[in-house]
Amino acid sequence: MPLYEHVFLARQDASAQQVEELTTQFTGVIEGLGGKVTKTEAWGLRSLTYRMNKNRKAHFVMLNIDGPSAVVAELERQQRINEDIIRYLTVRVEEHEEGPSAMMRKADRDRERDDRGPREGGFRGDREGRGDREGGFRGDRGPRRPREDAETAAATEE
What we know:
The chain is built from four helices and four strands, in the order βαββαβαα. By secondary structure, the protein is of the alpha+beta class.
C-alpha cells in the first residue's frame, strides 16, 4: 500500500486534550477505511510564519499513514469540514522515516542547548579591550574635522 506523511494544524484556542481527541478521531477514520497509522507525533503549539484565519500559533500533528488513496481523500474531506483545523498537507513518500522526525530532533537539540545554561556574551556592552575611541566610530582615521564649505575645501585642494 502507498505510504503518506500527513501534517495538520489545529487552532491555537484548542487545548492539548482537544488536539489529542482530533488525532484519535482522524486515526479512527483512517483505520475504518482499511489504512494504518504507523506513527503519530505531536509537535506542540508553534508560532506560524504568518497569520492564518486570525491565528498566530497552531498545534502541529504529524501522522505516518499506510493505506490506499481513498483513506487520504476521506481524511482531507473530514479536515476541510472541521472548524478546528487551519491547514493540512499530505505527501506521498517512498518509505517512512525511522525514529523521530526532523522536527522532533530539532526540539531535542533545542532542549539540550537550553539545558547547558546561559551563553556567554550576547550584547555589545560586554566587549572588553576596545579602548576609548576618539572621534566616534571612525576607527584608525583619527578625530573628525569640522565640516568645511565647498569654497574652502576647493581652495585647500589647489
